[in-house]
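Action item from last meeting closed. Structure (373 res):
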């Protein structure tokens, strides 16, 4: 049986960032990915937005790691030549009864260390974005966009340069906690058995399923698993905006917003569709063109001149959540021995937005947990 120091399960943006951090700290690292590709699920099916850190409760992991991760991500992208743009974002109120909500977002952001927000009148917002209709807006200059695929390839390259190994098509079938570490049964093209002194569960959508396969981990240490599917549409032609445009947040997400890709094309989404994880074929990324009508109705509230009937289905993604519909959003759940009592195991649950933005800070957090036992 092979003996390893560290195994990271999941080669999404967070798993790759964790592998990089551990390898650069001098650890022996193996990354196991069940699919044939890196980042094929949540990491590559999102808005590719660099979030400023506006929406999260002060003191939460999401708030702290988003703000820290944003600064680290901009610096990393600049250093590595990864495509990105600090384009800024407008959060728009479309009626006076939403103004208090905008002020709440600004005050919360300040408490999280985000001090560059500007509250704008409708005229000031239109001076920046003539196509927008709003009664008030909040400008976030430090929000941006990034090429998530280039980011993941760079993280993989850094990890491998520091000695980490990535093995694709290698699902973890079973694990057992022993006195010498966690013994893993790995399937795929070349099945193997190995023992690792540190196991990092960064399996994203399947983190709870993996944890349930670890014999010796108490079931009550595994939070519920909920999936929220988000669909995206694109609009051909010249973009009407130069910044990201977000409505006020809604339950389960941040509303149907306008994002831009690095080529300047507008994308709209995501909506929120809760999917029972027990449902057969729940991991479905089909976009029904009929959903476009609801997108149009939502976007027209702040872009009344939107051309109708021209939206094109783009892609869909799934978010791993640990609370279901109708409940307040949960914080990142990063559990080590203090939470579950198993030495050498770190479980990451509910790593959704702003996981991409926070990825480098998340990796440092996990590496520090590993170093401190």
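Sequence:
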């Amino acid at each position: 049986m092979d003996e390893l120091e560290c195994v990271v399960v999941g080669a999404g943006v967070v798993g790759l960032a964790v592998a990089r951090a551990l390898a650069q700290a001098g650890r022996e690292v193996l990354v196991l990915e069940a699919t044939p590709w890196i980042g094929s699920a949540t990491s590559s099916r999102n808005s590719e937005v660099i979030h400023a850190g506006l929406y999260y409760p002060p003191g939460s992991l999401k708030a702290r790691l988003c703000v820290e991760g944003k600064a680290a991500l901009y610096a990393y992208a600049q250093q590595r030549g990864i495509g990105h743009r600090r384009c800024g974002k407008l959060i728009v109120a479309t009626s006076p009864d939403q103004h208090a909500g905008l002020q709440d977002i600004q005050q919360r952001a300040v408490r999280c260390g985000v001090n560059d927000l500007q509250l704008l009148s409708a005229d000031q917002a239109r001076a920046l974005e003539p196509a927008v209709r709003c009664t008030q807006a909040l400008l976030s200059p430090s929000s941006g966009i990034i090429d998530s695929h280039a980011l993941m390839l760079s993280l993989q390259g850094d990890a491998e340069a520091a000695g980490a190994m990535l093995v694709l098509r290698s699902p973890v079938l079973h694990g057992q906690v022993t006195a010498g570490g966690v013994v893993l049964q790995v399937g795929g093209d070349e099945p193997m058995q190995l023992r690792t002194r540190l196991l990092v569960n960064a399996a994203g959508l399947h983190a709870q399923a993996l944890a349930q396969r670890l014999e010796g981990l108490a079931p009550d240490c595994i939070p519920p698993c909920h999936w929220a599917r988000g669909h995206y549409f694109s609009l051909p032609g010249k973009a009407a905006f130069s910044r990201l445009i977000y409505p006020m947040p809604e339950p389960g997400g941040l509303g149907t917003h306008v994002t831009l890709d690095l080529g300047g094309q507008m994308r709209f989404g995501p909506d929120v569709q809760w999917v029972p994880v027990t449902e057969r074929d729940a991991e479905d990324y089909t976009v029904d063109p009929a959903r476009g009508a609801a997108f149009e109705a939502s976007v027209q509230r702040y872009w009344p001149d939107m051309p109708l009937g021209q939206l094109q289905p783009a892609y869909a993604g799934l978010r791993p959540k640990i609370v279901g519909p109708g409940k307040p959003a949960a914080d990142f759940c990063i559990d080590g021995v203090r939470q579950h009592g198993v030495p050498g195991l770190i479980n990451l649950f509910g790593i959704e937005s702003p996981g991409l933005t926070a990825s480098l800070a998340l990796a440092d957090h996990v590496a520090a947990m590993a170093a401190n036992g």
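Note appended to the action item: The chain has nine helices and 21 strands.
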